[in-house]
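Q: What does the predicted 3D structure of MFS general substrate transporter look like?
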Amino acid sequence: MPAFVFGMAVLGVGISMCRVIAVCILVQYRENAVIGIMYGFSSIGQTTAPFLLRLIQKVTTWKHFFWIIMAYFAIIGIMQFFVLKDVVLYGSKGDLLPIRQKWHGILTDKKLWKRIMSLTLSQLITESWAHWMSTYVKDIKKLTFHVLSIGSFELAIYRSGATVSSICFSHLYKKVGYKRSNLALLWSTCGFLIGINEAQGIRSVSILNAFIGFALAPTLANMLGSISSDINLPYVETTVSFALAVSTTGVVVGPLVLSFLIRDFGIDVIVGTSIVMAFVASLSNIHEPVSLVNSIKALPRRAFLQSDLVRKRLMNHKEQL
């Protein structure tokens, strides 16, 4: 068991390093929209992984599977060396700023902290649902699937929705702003979660599960794109590393806390808890909640004034006729 835990930790370090390097490069060249596309293509691997794992299990043993994975990561490392050997990150050119100055600039940036908090909460709901969703489908919905385990199937469906939205809507936050887009996506997630709680049958559950992945996936890329749009190039490496490191706590804490709730109250609490997490994550995108409340209060008056204006125009038009 200790060897397994150590191996998983080393694997996580390698994957995280690759992700930080990729995001740093995209941020440096202001390719904000490509961040969403990158996460979309990474979801393709997460979608196909359960099917490939099932196939490999039929033709080999876990011992051989371990060496297959090791060879795969070795190939990826060699490819990255040749592809990125000429890329130099701006923050590492001649050590432009002392590391202490970089960290001071990041830790005192309140705007960055708000965005990192939103990023963390988005990771919290995304990974919590991905981790416990298969158990919910098996134990509560009592669904089965003939090709492979229902958990792997629903996880693939969930990742498929994430893949499509990440690739197709990578420019979403640029069109309407990251706050509005994330609010719409997270509130839509709440609606889909309410729907899946009432849904019956593998078809309706799978469709809603795909829509949950579809709504949650762009929130991460939107927030990283928002961070990168205001970043100073000398702070690229430090800011991206810090943002991804802090936000990853959501990946760790979310499923762990949810496991204690499930142990005490049962697996059926996952939907209600996920709705609360999605709603709280949406509120973290509102930097001025008081102005939002005032805007909501003013909506009836605005609607009345607009309808009165339309009525007067219609009356004038009739008089002219």
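A (community wiki): The structure tokens above were generated from the sequence. The mean pLDDT is 77. The two ends are 86 Å apart (CA to CA).
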